[in-house]
Write a structure and sequence with these properties.
Largest sheet: 4 strands, antiparallel
Shape: globular
Number of strands: 28
Order of helices and strands: HEEEEEEEEEEEEEEEEEEEEEEEEEEEE
Radius of gyration: 22 Å
Structural class: mainly beta
Number of helices: 1
Distance between the termini: 58 Å
Low-confidence stretches: 1-34
Length: about 375
Amino acid sequence: MNGNATLRLLPFLLASLFLFGCGTPNTPVGPQPPSDYFDVLNVLETRGNALDLDLEGDSLYVAENSAGVGFYDVSDPAAITLTHHLPTSEAIELVDAVPEMNALFVHNGSINHIYLLDSLDNGQITSLGSSGVNTILTHITTDSVKSLNFEDAETVETDVIRTLICDKNSGDGLQVYTVWLDSTDDVVFPLDTLSIFSRVEKMNLDWSGIEEAGAETIAGFDTVAISLHDYGVAFADISKEVEDQDGVWLSDINTPGDAQGLAYSDGYLYVADGYAGLSVIDAQDVTAPVFVANRRIKNLDHAIKVFVKDDQLVLMDQFDGFFFYDISTPEAPDYQGSYEIREPTSAVFVDDDMMILASVSEGLTTIKFK
């Protein structure tokens, strides 16, 4: 084709790209009409974009972007009610509540803050490092700690929160902290020098400088699986016994796609594998994991998160919605149906047969499986 012909075609090519795009992201169908697999019970608009969910009992904590954090009563999932709102100066992307330790972890895109759940209006109490965080996982255990408020404090055995923070920035790796409620006696706000939540960084794992896309704990909080995009999944020992070694890498395994979100259940690791859809790894022996299955739905090209409870699995596409599988046979996930909606962000199981789905377009959507 000569140069003049190419120039004549250029406006048409540009117009086509404008009208039809480059093929991605997908164009969702939905929300779909009523499904044979579930019923929609309720749709509740949130104050800001619902970006992340954490369910603790009947309390749902929602990271609502520029609107801060929303607190919802979900004792009746078909009639979710807002009970409290925490305004923040920064947009909140992640949330993880630990009511037993009176702690609320939030991430605003550049730093992690910890609030006292019963004193939210007094602002954030403690900050943890890391910037581009995509995962916060917490686990209550006991440890020997020394108060950072008093130089002559004795070492005591107390409840602590082991906190795992996965940083998606290349080279920043996975950090594990010990966080504890150091002092709440005679607290006067605003705080001066008193540290209510104290924290100590215990380890930092980095897989050769590769961006870490997500993490999931296995066997309590002693082993972790870390997704590495095109490099698959790696497993590491993060038990207290190896803290002085910054953790120990155990194994790694490739997946056919772009490994991102992870969920572990009954010896199997389920991987939101990007353009490859859903991948399944037998992780009963984390030193020798085995790839056992892959399922890809046509046009589902951006699988980034996965959620599991018992035999139910939900795969989330970044643009198109939620896709449901029966995993009663982990080696053969059986596709059941979908709820296709623009800009889904997160999901939680409320019960064996009920879920709350979060999306930018709808807020909070409650569905019940039939």
